[in-house]
Amino acid sequence: MPRPPNPEVRSRLIEKGAEIIHRLGFNGCGVQDITAAAGVPKGSFYNYFESKDAFAAAILDEYWRAIESNYVSILEDDFVSPLKRVERHFSELIEYHERQKFTFGCLIGNLALELAAQSSIARSKLKALLRTWTAALAKCLSAASEAGELPLAREPQDLAATLIEAFEGAVMVAKVEQSGRALRRFGTVALPRLLA
Amino acid sequence: MPRPPNPEVRSRLIEKGAEIIHRLGFNGCGVQDITAAAGVPKGSFYNYFESKDAFAAAILDEYWRAIESNYVSILEDDFVSPLKRVERHFSELIEYHERQKFTFGCLIGNLALELAAQSSIARSKLKALLRTWTAALAKCLSAASEAGELPLAREPQDLAATLIEAFEGAVMVAKVEQSGRALRRFGTVALPRLLA
């Protein structure tokens, strides 16, 4: 008889699995690597997750929760002017990638390119997270326009999506170069020109 | 005694392998899938390639040759003004992704995020290709500045790298959305604002 699911085991699988998939890629590691990292028997994985694809969606949720509370929340900090919030949102994300030595990339970007063509569960999750991120950034850009910090003609939704795309592309190049050059360039070229 | 290598077999392995890896990812398929697609025995793979990593570098070279002759060459077309060449370079790349229904992404971007942290052979190759692409675009942007089509103050190298990063990010989002929206936005938002 299967033992009742243990939320602590589920959390550990997600935490360790996110780490390992962020480093090795989704297809670069197997369920066994994930359960070994979490210190649980291989068979127990499927007591918690229907499939490895469903697990990808779960680790994306977990990754997003961390991004949201550490970086997206900056966009809602009413003590700071909206434009400053946008700049800080990205500069703190750049510091996060610097702490990783620019080596692992963004889990959303990594899984977007690795899984979008193969896993509809992962693709839906990625689409939803990108939509949420874009909406949060667009809201702050709208506030910047209302505060007179941005030309009113800028369509905040398109501008937000463009900034995220430029940022994800810079994270990609930083990963290839193992250097912060591309991300510094995002801050000195892409961000000011797109916001001008 | 191993048979002498057959250049036709090598080409077929690269052609079929590039297709399959572009669709499934590097770790999403094995050497056996590649040899089966090329219709050659599994064991023969290693007569042509030292490792699967070395094969990744070979398919990137092949992909780049196609990109170069079909899209990068546009940047050198002296019959067209430099700025128009830049716009056409990207609009034709967008059409290429449209023909793929935005599903597979750019092989350079895909392997950048999948392999840069794991394979130094792939990472070096990706770095070199990005450098070549950036240099070709920067040269055309310089010509645009000299022709008075771009403000002289723009640093062509940084601008070229930023455009490529924004484009790769848009290809990523297009792959997640399976739609051309992000790439159209690259053409209507990122490109004109970065070139303004």
Automatic annotation (TrEMBL), chains A, B:
Domain HTH tetR-type spans what residues? Answer: 7-67
Q: Which GO terms describe its molecular function?
A: DNA binding
Q: Which residues form the signal peptide?
A: none
Does this UniProt record's set of keywords contain Cytoplasm?
no
An example Pfam family from this entry, by short name, is: TetR_C_13
Keyword Transcription regulation annotated: yes
Annotated DNA-binding ranges? 30-49
Keywords, alphabetical: DNA-binding, Transcription, Transcription regulation
Q: What is this protein called?
A: TetR family transcriptional regulator
Organism, per UniProt? Prosthecodimorpha hirschii
